[in-house]
Automatic annotation (TrEMBL):
Pfam families the UniProt entry points to: Nucleoplasmin
InterPro entries: Nucleoplasmin (IPR004301), Nucleoplasmin_core_dom (IPR024057), Nucleoplasmin_core_dom_sf (IPR036824)
Region annotation Disordered: where it falls in the sequence: 111-136
Protein name: Nucleoplasmin-3
Family to which the UniProt record says this protein belongs: Belongs to the nucleoplasmin family.
PANTHER family in the record: NUCLEOPLASMIN (PTHR22747), NUCLEOPLASMIN-3 (PTHR22747:SF13)
Domain Nucleoplasmin core residues, every copy: 7-105
Assembly mode: Interacts with NPM (via N-terminus). Forms a pentamer with NPM at a ratio 4:1 (NPM3/NPM). Two pentamers form a decamer.
Compartment annotation: Nucleus, Nucleolus
Length: 136
């Protein structure tokens, strides 16, 4: 199921926002970031947004994802950039306001829709036509 991520706003007074899920929850969660944009009242300065998360070795990493400036790039589409919660969004430079929006997906591990039937049985493999070389 997809849930809208209500988003967050980063400003000079609220420089970070952490999205986290209940540790007792045994579901898989994905947070997808769609848009980062400057809001009304933003100054013409560089506003750098970075993400603080964990890599595959469970080490904390920080990655800048947007450098917005009112006069040249007030909005950035991130095409549903997927993240594993917990994740922190931080305004590393600038005073904002910067708005972040996206969606949150919850996949219950006992839900059969999580598993896909990509495996072909031996019978199915035999029915596939052979791959022919391209004609020149």
């Amino acid at each position: 199921s997809h849930l809208l991520f209500p988003g967050c706003e980063l400003t000079a007074s609220t420089k970070s926002y952490t999205f986290q899920v209940d540790k007792e929850d045994d579901s898989d969660h994905v947070l997808a970031l769609s848009v980062v944009c400057l809001r009304d009242g933003a100054k013409d300065e560089c506003n750098v947004v970075e993400i603080v998360g964990r890599n595959h070795k469970n080490q904390e990493i920080t990655v800048p994802v947007a450098n917005l400036k009112l006069s040249c790039q007030p909005l950035l589409s991130l095409d549903n950039f997927k993240l594993q919660p917990p994740v922190t969004f931080r305004l590393a430079a600038g005073s904002g306001p910067v708005h972040l929006a996206g969606w949150h997906q919850i996949v219950h591990r006992d839900d059969g829709s999580f598993e896909e039937d990509d495996d072909l049985s031996e019978e199915d493999e035999e029915e596939l036509p052979p791959i022919m070389p391209a004609k020149k």
